[in-house]
Each structure stands twice: as C-alpha cells, then as structure tokens.
Amino acid sequence: MPSESSQSVTELLRAAQAGDAGAAERLMAVVYEQLHQLARARMAQLPPGQTLQPTALVHEAYLRLTDKSDVAWESRQHFFSAAARAMRDILVEQARRKAGPARGGGRRRRELDEACAVIEPLAEDVLAVHEALEELEKEDPVKAQIVLLRYFSGLTTAETAEVLGLAERTLDRKWRYIRARLLERLG
Length: 187
Hints:
This protein is mostly helical. It has 8 helices and no strands. It has helices at residues 6-17, 21-45, 54-66, 76-99, 123-139, 141-152, 157-164, 168-186.
C-alpha cells in the first residue's frame, strides 16, 4: 500500500479541509494511486461485462469524498473507509440502474445457444451483498467496515488490518466468520 505515512495523509486531509489548495493537490497525488489500486482490485472481482472502468470509479468516489465540506477527516482510516463506502454506493447505484425497467430489469434472458451465449452480470448479486452488508452494519459496524475494505475496496488482510488498527490474525478470524455468515445469508 502506501509509502506515505498515515500521519502524513491525515495531516494533508486536515489541511485540504481547511482550504489549503496545495495540500489538496498533494493529497490527491498521495491517495489517487491507492484509490486506483482499490478500484482495480474491486472491479477485477466483478463479473465480465461491466461498463464502469476503475478510473471512472475512482474519480466519482473522489468527487463524492471531496464534495463533502461538512466532513472532518479524522484519519487515513476514516478517509479510506469513506472511499470504500463511496465505491460501494456507486456500484450499487449502477446495479440498480441496470436492473431498472429501462435496462430490461425484470425480463429474463434466454440463451440462443450455448456456444454464443451472452451472460449479463447479475445486478441482483451486488444488491444482495449490499442488503446483507446493511444488516451486518446494524449488528456490528466493525465487521461491516471489514467487508467494505476487503470486498468493495479489494484490500488485502494486511492492508485492512493496518487501516483498522487490528492484528492480522484477529482480522483474519473475523473475515472468516463474516464470509461464512454472508455465504449462508446469500445462499
């Protein structure tokens, strides 16, 4: 992950929020590549046929994050958690649009023949994960945060542990539990 220290990112976040344009530019340079890596990792986990590109996901998420003047960034963890949530929200919105009536939502595809079958990724899958995550968030916000960072942002166990300030073994144990629970919930 980053070569920039957590303290440095936090300081840049606070300075940018205070109106320092130079800090905002430095912040973008520091976090852009990290956000792009997260988006690429997340998009790689999605089924083929996605029209949203990682760069567009990063730009939209960054715009949403910097558009919030009322948010006081407490730390690098807070920023990247918000980035993961923004990416999740964007992907859920896209899935809902694809499932809508204007995009053929509700209609079933029929394969013309197995050799030339076109399989559209299921928007329902993203929506089902979103709903399961909302339930988990009500019960245990930390576990929901782990899902955001691992599933929607594509962070590794080590990176997620660093962001959340947990031991890797603790995070790994929680992740195994969460995955089993979500698999049970999602069928």
